[in-house]
Amino acid sequence: MKTFRYILILLLLIASATEIKSQTNEYFTHTVSKGQTLYSISRMYNTTVKELIEENPECAIKLSVGQKLKIKQRNNINEQTADNTNGARYHTIQPGETLYRLGQLYQITPQEICAANPGLSISNFRSGEVILIPVPAKRIVPVIKEEQKSTEEDDGITIRTVHKVEKGETIYSITRRYGITEEELKAANPDLNPDKKKLKKNTQLKIPYSQIDLAAIENEKRIKEEQSNADIFRELEKKKDSIATLDTFQGIRVALILPFLLDSYAPNEQARMVEYYEGFLLAVEELKRYGYSFEINTFDSGQENTSLEALINSGQLNNMDIIFGAVYPEHNKQLARFAKEKNIPLVIPFTSKEDEIFHNPMVYVVNTMQSYFFSEVTDHFLKAFPQANVIFVSDGANNKRDFINALTDKLNEKNVSHSTITLEQLNDQENNVATLSGLLKEDKENIFIPTSSKQTVLSSMLPTLILLNNDTIALPEYKLFGYPEWQIYAGNMDSRIYEVDTYFYASFFSHATLPETARFQNEFIRWYNRSLQNIYPRYGMLGHDTAYAFLLAISKYGTDMPLHINNLAFTPVQTGFKFERVNNWGGMVNKKIYFVHYTPQYNIEKIDFDKQ
Questions:
Q1: Residue 112, CB half-sphere, CA atoms under 13 Å: how many?
Q2: Distance between CA atoms of 441 and 478, rounded to whole angstroms?
Q3: Is the residue at 259 inside a domain?
Q4: Same domain, yes or no, for 348 and 460?
Q5: pTM, whole model, 2 decimals?
């Protein structure tokens, strides 16, 4: 049994080593998670959608959560690339691996692995997780003097014990007793005569360790010597805590970089940026009342084709504690590179199309990226309506095609019934009752969803849905589900949007009846003597919420801000926050989604699924 156990250990070690060698040399495995697309995965690993499909043809048909993709390493660490960050590689954690063993494999410290993967923790260091292996730092290799070198015993054979031969013992019986082969016994005892059937009593034989024994002993020794993941993460947390306590984080230096477009005429764009800035300053004033102190540095990023390199090279941003902005993609690329180099958090409040988030741990994208957004909405939809029966209403333009496709895939995955009618069929007063009688179900939550967010579509649907809700028409009950844009023109619908039991999803929401909205609007008018623009989102509220959340978080927690940004004790005016890293080495994306419910009782409910 003992020999069998050692053989099993050795086989497992060989299998693990083979798997590691295979993935480190050529490929690694990515497990698809919620909200990921072929595009986002390709950006994450510096590859292309075409190459992903070539290696994984099945993903061209369907990409599912939990699906495993084989991805080719883009760069190999070698002497030519050891000084280049492009020499970094990706590694899929295997069963039984630890930070210590990965450090041994890649000749790098566990601390360097953790530094390259700020999203890594004791809770998510698990089999199947992909991590970034950075380029090893240059190290001084000590010169070992000749007399320091150790020699192996007996020409490389390690002796386990010395056996005194007893009467009747044979070579066979001794090898069986110690779990070694005859060849191993003879190698340790060159004078042994293999032709003798019996061994002379009292002869002393050297008993070597078998190769299986040595592998098992080495493995046990390594396990005893290596630090556990828990020990390593605990040490890192202590180090971060000691750093955080060195500074009280009062007097936060803030850079706000927005296109005020002072050298051009763009009234709409300028008005939005000014309003964002005004809301930002209101949050700063509120936080000052609690004793926090800030130095606000504001810069005009200029037009889209203007470079920020002059500002970056001027050194004015070098000592900032946090940066907000900008708007245009090229500006954000430049700022993201700078933020990563200087280790400064960069908050991007507006655009959601930022590839930098996949490789830059300092980036925070507030405006939820579409693939993650739709993934959250479809999950919440099934939580809100577990017995749904969906009727899509197509207007021909279908400007919400991507969302409809995402929701349809989720409905099919969960075997939820759904059907489609046209807007003309819904409004056909002669035939719509007969059409809907075959689609609406008594034992389900019947939900109409238009395939367009246009105001004209909603205005066209509401009168018909109210008419069909008449008690004289024997149709099952139903609800209406729609889009964030509806909050802009809901006020123009009077009571009709309430009467049909309406829901819509949103990552930004405010309404004059909500206490926090009323308070902010009154404060804004008091300070600036005018009302907010009626646009989605409200830029003044966006400025307030992003400033309040991030300035409070960095003031209280400093470098630990990523761990606490979701747990702040304040009520946003419009913008919810639920940040998650897109991968272990990348930035954080906001995945907060609300459902807003206009009830038949003429109330407005803001449904927060994270608090249920």
A1: 15
A2: 9
A3: yes
A4: no
A5: 0.79
The identity of residue 581, as a single letter, is R
Q: What's the burial of 415, exposed, middle or buried (CB within 10 Å: 0-12/13-18/19+)?
A: exposed
298 CB contacts (<8 Å, ≥6 apart)? 255, 256, 257, 258, 277
Phi and psi for 581 in degrees, rounded to 5? -75, 140
Q: pLDDT at position 552, please? A: 95
Can you tell me the distance from the alpha carbon of 71 to that of 69, in angstroms, rounded to the nearest whole number?
6
Helix axes 99-106, 2-25, angle to 10 degrees: 60
CA–CA dist 132, 121 (Å, integer): 14
Which residues of the chain carry a pLDDT beneath 50? 1-22, 24, 76-85, 140-152, 243-249
Distance CA 214, CA 211 (A): 5
Final residue of a structural domain among 506, 539, 556? 506
Q: Where are the alpha helices (DSSP H) in 429-538?
A: 432-437, 455-468, 486-489, 496-499, 515-528
Number of compact structural domains in the chain: 4
Q: Please give the residue range of the domain that contains residue 172.
A: 159-208
In this structure, are residues 562 and 322 in contact, taking their beta carbons and an 8 Å threshold? no
pLDDT on residue 249: 44
Which residues have CB under 8 Å from 579's CB, separation 6+?
A: 364, 562, 565, 566, 588, 589, 590, 591
What's the longest Cα–Cα distance across the chain?
111
Both 51 and 114 in a single domain? yes
Q: E-assigned strands of 172-251?
A: 204-208
Measured in degrees and rounded to the nearest 5, phi and psi for residue 296 equal -95, 120
Long-range contacts of 461-470 (CB under 8 A, 24+ apart): 461/393, 461/423, 461/426, 461/427, 462/493, 462/496, 462/497, 462/500, 463/496, 464/426, 464/427, 464/429, 464/432, 465/500, 466/496, 466/499, 466/500, 467/429, 468/432, 468/433, 468/436, 469/499, 469/500
Claim to verify: residue 129 and residue 47 sit in the same structural domain: yes
- Kindly give the interhelix angle for 2-25 and 211-225, rounded to the nearest 10 degrees: 70
